[in-house]
Amino acid sequence: MTLTPTPDAAASVLAWHDVSVSIGRTAILDRLTLAVPAGGLLTLVGPSGCGKTTLLSIAAGLLKPGAGRVETRARRIALMFQDSRLLPWRRARDNAAFGLRCQGMPRRQRLDAAQRLLESLGLAPEDGDKFPHQLSGGMRQRVALARALAIEPDLLLLDEPFNALDSVLRRDLQDLVRQTVTARGVAAVFVTHDLTEAIRVCDRLVVMAGPPGRVAFSTGFAQPADARDDAAVLAGLQALWREPAVAEALGATPGRRRVTA
Fold it and tell me: Where in this chain does the record put each ABC transporter domain (predicted)?
């Protein structure tokens, strides 16, 4: 697989410029500059503590940087967490419609829209009537994804959304996110500890080092994500491990596909 250089950030939908964040005397991010291309999926890979989730929090407006600035052209931003964070007293359909309710959409209209979205993401019609405790982990994450997509975001932020799932479910949902991003033309930032997962779904990949968090390596892939089979993903993995900056940042041997904290 051929790696490609970082493009000009002028067409980005989101950009962090010289962003620094500290908690007390501990530096979390150190003058980090990074851009998210419009209509593409950027993956952030790195060890725990390098500031990946902090970057998403800043992008979502949940945290202000201590220095630097953030620029975005996104009108609607949606965030999906590792935990589904569904309201346990509401049915799946109501959870998926929560953002639409906040936007003031009439009840019948928002529930119909949520039901259609749930079914488009692989849930059965009757699953919309179930409460979160009646759903499997994979089903709950599909509901969480539906909730995020229901508001038709320009920018989708995903913070290790499939980390707690088994490998089969992870693969299914990786494909689902990738297909959804492509079909809707939405920009996305996908945080993961898993380098294989990152290669499978991304348009561009950033390896972070730290703490404090900084960009160690950034690249794209000549082959579109939708066309990458297992052999292409393996080739990309091998190409990345040949990069000294990647091996140093992730602190693992080339034979390891998963970054551990």
Answer: 14-235
Ranges assigned E (strand) in the chain: 3-4, 12-23, 26-37, 41-45, 67-72, 77-80, 155-159, 187-192, 204-209, 214-221
Determine the 3-state secondary structure of 162 from DSSP: coil
The Cα–Cα gap between 228 and 84 comes to 28
**What residues does each domain of the chain span?**
3-76+153-250, 87-152
- Contact 231/196 with Cβ under 8 angstroms? no
Report yes or no: 173 and 161 within 8 Å, Cβ to Cβ.
yes
Q: What is the mean pLDDT of the chain?
A: 87
How many helices and strands, by DSSP H and E, does the chain display? 9, 10
Amino acid making up residue 41: L
Q: 129 and 91 in contact (C-beta within 8 Å)? A: yes
Name the token pair of 222: 């000549």
Q: Cα-Cα-Cα-Cα dihedral of 104, 107, 112, 113, to 10°? A: 10
The yes-or-no verdict on residue 54 having pLDDT over 90 is yes
Quick one: tokens of 71?
Answer: 């620029």
Region 54-61: what's the mean pLDDT? Answer: 92
Over the Cα atoms of the chain, what is R_g? Answer: 18
Are 171 and 193 in contact, with CB atoms under 8 Å apart?
A: no
Q: Architecture of domain 3-76+153-250 in CATH?
A: 3-Layer(aba) Sandwich (3.40)
